[in-house]
Amino acid sequence: MKNIKNFIDGKLVDPISKQYIENIEPATGKVYGNLPDSKKEDVGVAVDAAKAAFSVWSKWPVQKRSDVLMKWADLIDANKAEFIEAESRDNGKPMKLAAHVDIPRASANLRFFATAIIHYASESHKMDDVAINYTLRAPIGVAACISPWNLPLYLFTWKIAPALAAGNTVVAKPSELTPMTAFLLSKLANEAGLPSGTFNIVHGYGHHVGQAMTEHPDVGVVSFTGGTETGKKIASTIAPMFKKYSLELGGKNPNIIFSDADLEDAVKTSVHSSFANQGQICLCGSRIFVQSEVYDQFVEQFVSRVRRLQIGDPEDDATQVGALVSKAHLEKVEGYIQLAKEEGGTILFGGQRPIVAGRCADGYFLTPTVIVDLDPYCRTNTEEIFGPVVTITPFETEEEVLAYANGTPYGLSATVWTDNLKRGHRVAEFLKMGIVWLNCWLVRDLRTPFGGMKQSGVGREGGLEALRFFTEPKNVCVKY
Ligand code: TXE
């Protein structure tokens, strides 16, 4: 059994309660380890350690902080086989995906902010011959970083890297569904050179540990990624405490294909943007809109590619679609397939649990599902499903598809396929989304602002946005 511990004040420790949560492997449905069922008291010890460490870490020269983060990234790379295996086993995603995306991106996140902080500068404003203003951007203090289960180490490091680089200390909580790679990272923290208390992990349930972190009076800034409903709870806790917070929440992203698109490229990429990570990426294009002239052609080519997707054991190199993260999530997604039928949808492909032989016979697998004939504004087309389920809907005009695309409570990302770049730029401007891809998907430059609008979140991550989020600006005005 793989039993893990909290990492507090530079030491791996048991939860005060000595209570544990079972960790289930999604591909087999079997318990394979235990994680701490920490409570408010554990969070209190971790925040005290982070608070004590802040006076040291925040005063370190930037280059020294940068060197530690770079060393940590090197240690991930040196242990990547262990990280890849752990990520795949914990989440259910194909090992190949963890190897090509999750783990390389985790060390890339650390390196990106280890270098960004060295070039991070602020501004001054000269008032003719009256005065000079300069802006200081100082670290805030103890940062709470709370991350979800879909891209565990990728999104965990996406938060802790800028927080630490900017000179804050961190109390972090990965999802209780996927704690393993964060635990492995904590085991390397001392070797990387992080002073005790600078970085802490408290494992456990969100309503216990996450809630205690957000409401703790000594936590000065909160960075959260997860569901919109949880985001609402966190915002209601934090707003009256006037803390800085960023919320990266859900999405119901449109994938728009105009008749002049490169159809082969649109089909190939749309299979990926629909079902990568079992459709459990908030940026997945779960609503496909196809201009009527090419609708039949697209549907036929798309479904024929989806049929060929390899579902199976995440350890198998040929696997393209692994297990969903939990039994509860599998049942939630199946609930939406049932809803789609009730709303008049036609299941063109999928919608059932595949037979996966051998050790994975009891795993949480679902055949990639393609649904047509739904109203663009029905619940299936406006609520986040967050699984391997997409709908395809025809449209006639640009105005019509923009209304569909913007017609949900979410505003995270969109993809647009057209050979007419004037139209591409125009549609991108009218889409109420934080991120728009033209003729591509998930092409990511870490310097760009990352996040959504409406119920997809508050604030942005990435590049200077993240460093500004994790620092407090102060303007000093000096009379000549
Ligand atoms: O979220 P949950 P999940 C969204 C994605 C989907 C969801 C999937 O679209 O909707 O996140 O992640 C902790 N106080 N994004 O189901 O349940 C919980 O323990 C404090 C969008 O895990 O909200 C876990 O660690 N914390 C994103 C974390 O919150 C609490 C990218 C997330 O859990 C808490 C990825 C509470 N009261 C997923 N309750 C984007 N936009 O980039 C739970 N938690």
Topology:
Blueprint: E1 2-3, E2 6-8, E3 11-13, E4 20-25, E5 30-36, H1 40-57, H2 62-78, H3 80-91, H4 95-116, E6 124-127, E7 131-139, E8 142-146, H5 152-165, E9 169-173, H6 180-186, H7 189-192, E10 199-201, H8 206-215, E11 219-225, H9 228-238, E12 244-248, E13 254-257, H10 263-275, E14 287-291, H11 292-307, H12 327-342, E15 346-349, E16 369-372, E17 389-395, H13 398-405, E18 410-411, E19 413-417, H14 421-430, E20 435-438, E21 453-454, E22 457-458, H15 463-469, E23 471-479
Parallel strand pairs: 1-5, 8-9, 8-11, 9-10, 11-12, 13-14, 13-19, 14-17, 16-17, 19-20
Antiparallel strand pairs: 2-3, 4-5, 6-7, 7-23, 12-22, 15-16, 18-21
Helix pairs in contact: 1-8, 2-4, 3-4, 4-5, 10-11
The structure holds ligand TXE.
Q: Can you walk me through this structure?
A:
The protein has helices spanning 40-57, 62-78, 80-91, 95-116, 152-165, 180-186, 189-192, 206-215, 228-238, 263-275, 292-307, 327-342, 398-405, 421-430, 463-469; strands at 2-3, 6-8, 11-13, 20-25, 30-36, 124-127, 131-139, 142-146, 169-173, 199-201, 219-225, 244-248, 254-257, 287-291, 346-349, 369-372, 389-395, 410-411, 413-417, 435-438, 453-454, 457-458, 471-479. The protein is of the alpha/beta class and 480 residues long. The protein has 2 domains: 2-249 and 456-479, 3-Layer(aba) Sandwich (Aldehyde Dehydrogenase, Chain A, domain 1); 254-451, 3-Layer(aba) Sandwich (Aldehyde Dehydrogenase, Chain A, domain 2). The strands form 6 sheets. A 7-stranded mixed β-sheet has the order 15-16-17-14-13-19-20, with helices on both faces. Strands 10-9-8-11-12-22 form a 6-stranded mixed β-sheet, with helices on both faces. A 3-stranded mixed β-sheet has the order 1-5-4, covered by helices on one side. Helix 10 (263-275) packs across helix 11 (292-307).
